[in-house]
Amino acid sequence: MVWEAYKKVRANKGGAGIDNVSIEEFDANRAKYLYKLWNRMASGSYFPPPVKEVEIPKKDGKVRKLGIPTISDRVGQMVVKMFIEPRLEKVFSNNSYGYRPNKNAHQALAAVRENCWKTDWVIDLDIKGFFDNIDHTKLMLAVEKHVPENWVRLYIQRWLEMPVLTKSGELIQKQGKGTPQGGVISPLLANLFLHYAFDKWLDKTDGAVNFTRYADDVIVHCKSEAHAERTLNAIRSRMKMVGLELHPEKTKIVYCRDYRRKGKYPIVKFDFLGYSFQPRTSESKGRAGVFLGFDCAISISSRKRIANKLGELKVERLSFKSIVGIAQYLNPMIRGWINYYGKFRAHELSKIFRLLEKRLVRWARKRYKRYKTSIKRAFQWLVRIREQFPYLFHHWRYSFTS
User: Fold this and answer.
1) Is 177 helix (H, G, I), strand (E, B) or coil?
2) Is pTM, for the whole model, over 0.85?
3) Are 361 and 375 in contact (CB under 8 A)?
4) Per-residue pLDDT tens over the stretch 92-143
5) Cα→Cα distances 133→174, 218, 294, Å
6) Rounded to a whole number, what is the largest CA-CA distance in the chain?
7) How many CA atoms lie within 13 A of 324 on its CB side?
8) CB burial class (10 A; 0-12, 13-18, 19+) of residue 354?
9) Where are the alpha helices (DSSP H) in 206-348?
10) Which residues fall within 8 angstroms of residue 227, CB to CB, at 6 or more apart?
């Protein structure tokens, strides 16, 4: 079990924990590290070390704090995750898509898209500080319901109680709540908590609503405004009952306006998993012309994040000798953007790639003397490159039309 878990952790890569042991260093001495972990886990004497706090910038300008365990501890968590996940998968709702085998964000987006066409109203739920506020006692009740093995429960309890070592070197103890984002087992435990706190409860409470959940991002579909308000009040009470709170500003009721639903309401847009759902013009397949539909495409905040990334990369200052080197450097990122954000209404990505091509032109003007005085000739050079090597940059393979 330890060996199989290690192979998964190694494939996932990731940074070092508080012991500063990297994946490469761990792999070079894996016999020593894995034997020690196996010996201690098998005897019940394994105590996880504190997690290292790392700050990741959020799109609203704030930071998300992740807790990074050591590689040995990630292997230990993976052992338990692999052991209990198959039985929990049999219990979880089909409407839950986050951090589950054979489920992904695109499936969640497709479900929301379809439900928006069927029902007029959406509740966009935002749970305030979800991972920091998971109640350990309530979570362990759910664990005990499905996990009779004492050794598993023992280690889950210890992982929940792991202290956090901050950047300033302060050791913060848990106060009976919270599970660190960044841990291998945290997403599984979070799904188990919300299965009982939300999924199962909503199915029992109101069979008329559809919902889609990706970890703590939840979209609930209702038939009318009154139904949405009633459901939101019930959810707010339920969250309070399980020790959670809905974000008062980010949680909202949205009207899915399109050519059929013409009511005038102030909020007709919501973001989910990096996409914006809102009224959009679409081409009709059955009749000529366009119509107003309710659909999703890459969100403005996601576009800004990619634009900021291009700014950080300083494409125009890259020191490659030719455009081929730049293409090899950028293509893995471009491929990732297209694979994720090109799933629905891929033509919306054209604005990002126009920005990239402006930066490529600036690179050419810095690199080649003959283009320094003429931006027009630099653009013509890029057009020629694209005609001669149409697959050089990954996005050149696509037309990005609707």
Assistant:
1) strand
2) yes
3) yes
4) 999 999 999 999 999 999 999 999 999 999 999 999 999 999 999 999 999 9
5) 10, 17, 34
6) 74
7) 4
8) exposed
9) 225-241, 300-313, 323-341
10) 121, 208, 209
